[in-house]
Amino acid sequence: TAEVLGEFVMIEELQQRAGAVIAGWCGSEAGAVAHCVAGAITMAIAAAIAGEDAAAIAALPDAGDRMRHVLLPAGHAVDYGHPIVQDIRLAGGVPRLVGNDHECSIARLEEALGTGDVACLLLVSSRLVRGAPLDLDAAVAAAHRHGVPAFIDGAAQDMRLPELLATGADLVFASGQKYLASPTAGLVAGSAQWVRAFRAQERGIGRAMKASKEAIVGLIAAIEERRGMDTGEWSRLQARKVSEFVERCASLAGIEAWAQADPSGMPFSRAHLRP
Length: 275
Description:
Blueprint: H1 2-5, H2 11-26, E1 30-34, H3 37-50, H4 54-59, E2 69-73, H5 84-90, E3 94-98, H6 106-112, E4 119-123, H7 136-145, E5 150-153, H8 161-165, E6 171-175, E7 186-190, H9 192-200, H10 213-227, H11 231-250, E8 256-261, E9 269-274
Parallel strand pairs: 2-3, 2-4, 4-5, 5-6
Antiparallel strand pairs: 1-7, 6-7, 8-9
Helix pairs in contact: 2-10, 3-5, 3-9
């Protein structure tokens, strides 16, 4: 990151390089880098509305007479510093919530999908997502049965990218600056068709959400470092840290301590403390 700050680069060439690295690492057809996951969501919704049509891209967030409704399970309408539905609205999309905070069944989702939406946005279960967990494989399949693309916000789930892509999702987003420890960046992986449409938004509203050269190079370096990491040994080290921490905290008067598997499926446990 520091080395590239003083260098001149062709961003298009750098994006192509990053896309190849992302695809090779997680097994997708293609990849890209945005400024962050929030920006990536907005660009993906823009791609669903405008596609690669230059005039439509330039007009956003005015979608004109194009379809612009985006389906989202109600429990997935989270607020992570700002409402995720605002990411949809920024692109000219209209969020349409399905189910309630307690549940969004696949049957209910399928019923709602029959009304002409341009995309279905899904989130990985986490501390922010409300209600019963949603079967992502079944949700993506339901969207595709109705000809609707499915996008998954994986946020901090970079270690689960192959698993999330295996759902058949058209695009999956993950943060570079969390467990990958890169500079702030939104990692995008998915089908070649949808990544191409996603990148077409760089000539529209995506211009304000572009990744800098140092973020792209830093993300490439972080992925290369991850590739060289022994993930099994890393997981064992984390387990030992948690176990020792819980054991020491449990010896303190008035403190209850225990370990619990990560609720979002990452390969480590978390320490919990309660007075």
